[in-house]
Amino acid sequence: MGQDERKTLTPELRAFIEEWKPKPGNLIMVLHRVQQTYGYMPREIVLELADLLGVPLAKIYGVITFYNFFKLKQPGRNLIQVCLGTACYLKGGDDIMKALEQELGVGVNTVTPDGEFSTEAVRCLGCCGLAPVIVINGEVFGKVTKAALPGILDKFRAKH
Amino acid sequence: MAEKLTRESLDALRARLEAENKQAESGGLKYVMVCGGTACDSNGGLALYAALVKAAEYAGANVRIVRTGCMGFCERGPIVKVLPDDTFYVDVKPEDAAAIINEHIVNGQVVTRLLYDKSQAEAGNAGHDIDFYAKQQRIVLRHCGVIDPEKIEDYIAHDGYAGLEKALFEMTPQGIIDEILASGLRGRGGAGFPTGKKWQFSAAVEADQKYIVCNADEGDPGAYMDRSTLEGDPHAILEAMMIAGRATGATKGYIYIRAEYPLAIKRLQIAIDQAREWGLLGCDNILGSDFTFDIELRFGAGAFVCGEETALLASIEGKRGQPTPRPPFPAVKGLWGKPTIINNVETLANVAVIITKGAKWFSSIGTATSKGTKVFALTGKVKNSGLIEVPMGITLREIIFDIGGGIPNGRKFKAAQTGGPSGGMIPPEYLDMPIDYESLAKIGSIVGSGGLIVMDDTDCIVDVAKFYLEFTVDESCGKCMPCRIGGRALLNALTRISEGRGVPEDIQKMQDICQAMARASLCGLGQTASNPVQAMLRYFMDEVMAHINDKRCPAGKCKKLVQYRINPERCVGCTMCARVCPVGAIAGKVREKHVIDPAKCVKCGQCYNTCKLHAIEIA
Prior knowledge:
The complex is a heterodimer of chains A (160) and B (619).
Chain A: H1 11-20, H2 27-38, H3 43-53, H4 57-66, E1 78-83, H5 86-90, H6 93-104, E2 117-122, E3 134-136, E4 139-141, H7 149-157
Parallel strand pairs in A: 1-2
Antiparallel strand pairs in A: 1-3, 3-4
Helix pairs in contact in A: 1-2
Chain B: H1 7-26, E1 30-35, H2 38-59, E2 63-68, E3 80-83, E4 87-89, H3 97-106, H4 131-134, H5 152-157, H6 162-169, H7 173-183, H8 195-204, E5 211-216, H9 225-232, H10 234-248, E6 252-258, H11 262-277, E7 294-300, H12 309-316, E8 340-344, H13 345-357, H14 359-363, E9 373-380, E10 386-391, H15 396-403, E11 413-418, E12 425-426, H16 437-442, E13 451-456, H17 461-475, H18 481-498, H19 505-520, H20 524-528, H21 531-539, H22 541-548, E14 564-566, H23 576-580, E15 586-587, E16 595-596, H24 606-610, E17 616-618
Parallel strand pairs in B: 1-2, 5-6, 5-8, 6-7, 9-13
Antiparallel strand pairs in B: 1-3, 3-4, 9-10, 11-12, 11-13, 14-17, 15-16
Helix pairs in contact in B: 2-3, 6-10, 6-13, 7-8, 7-10, 9-10, 9-11, 10-13, 17-18, 18-19, 19-21
């Protein structure tokens, strides 16, 4: 799995860091770009980052773990986000989450053994009119029912 | 590269754009406005827009297809509005594009089957006549659904940057502050602090650098007002930040926006780039004046506490988003120790229009202490969920039953929650109370940022309070003890109660913890986190006691307290329930009445969901 591959800083990322280095308060913006590039925060990249920005690794770790958005573990090839905002919760978002866990055979925040899927709970995606909502790789599915889940998952599985 | 605008050339440009639009309209030009809000987009709106453009090209129709910001009626999206006749189409599919272009635009025949109210086809079915819009008043959302948010020309043609012009050339900085003070505008992020006063504080401080920060970290679950405003009218926020900059002497602005809002980020960045290109931002002598201002985006990273001013500033500075004690207030000592104004998106969206139309006009709307309008994200158990803007002082009943169309599936209204995890549930007896800052505070809730969640009689108050506490416990930054430990203790008590392990002493214990949290927490998150529990104890004691004393959940939501039972009068012995039961708790032969063994039942609810005859009941 990709987790073991050694990640190196891409030239784009290096340029981005150089551009942001003189700006105050750059750390979170740089971390966003790292996650955008790799899908999570690879340890070796963050180590390099600490050197480049001159910020202690402990401080970076503190920031990464404070914010829900940043991930230390690599997600599955398809990332499923289940909205558990209030509107989705009232309309059965937690049941959808349970059904997904059953369907995939792994719990929330865990990657399936084949590396295909991982699930995470998110707060309000801002389309409450479509509740309950799930998002897979950025594609929004609204008014989701438990019965519709296998079909939706197959759409993503079938691509490989 | 566009020429750098001056006051004169901006006026000339606006006049030219308006004249061009008028001429085109008198020549029979029609507009097809397609809602480009997130809900409509993800429900086929993007494909619909492409199909409309293609159909219009093919037919050679005299029409402009515009992808606008959120029109609000998310329940029936994707929404399409045809102007100038204001025909309102709902649930439009990409397949319907050809019909709208060929029948309506080319032949002038309204496509009846797509109308909101098909029986009203004769009456024209104007968008503003629809119940959902009849009681709304759009100030904040004035451009949402009206302009193309990715075109600065559209914004300029609709009075865009006229407020900035007036502020720069016809008003003094103190004059701007006085106007905002006189308008009575109060912060729309939740606390309702007078905006003009905040500006005055910052203006009074001498400093070599001051900042304007727009708080677009909309973290309240079930609320998306700010997102829709940013997606539908990004220039209005830029203009307001510049006006605030002029008033207080700030030259630099930051918009702190959730990374979870990619479309809003994209549209803001486009707006910033366009404004820079036209010389409205990022340069000296804006519009030929002596004013300098620039704006940058900074992304949030999913921390609810960063909606709190001081935590937000820590996050912009690249740190963990932990709040610090106030005073000093950010208006005096904020970002990097410099005076900083932090205004919420909705607050800022009011600014430019107050400057152009005047404080008198604005303060004529609303109640004695709460002026203007409020945008709500109306969601939950309501027929027409969506984004609404209503004058302050409207009643909950008007919002839920007139605009929202009431509770679906014939259920009964139980409570409405404003202010998300920081607000309280409002029981039916306050449906007719006018909504403003003071009256909501009196009944233990807050106006909040604008989430309005409706609950019906199948929602359990204990379960909802638990849901909110789970949220605040998870989001507590852990810095101060009342919030860190108090929240956890409340959640533990609620969990016990919802599982049938509650004792009567829990009530007093929860009341004490609520008091301690409200009084002793460091920031707004902790101070308000107990509000849902306080409201529960104030208005829904019967329901709580049913959980504690009778080990019963009246709404049938708390799974551990639910008892499933088969109604022998309805059961026909189809065996469906017995077959889906994972633990073999249901006994009975074909065509005979079935029975559930409560000792074996694990309360998974599969039988309840399977039975087509509704023979399985929750006791």
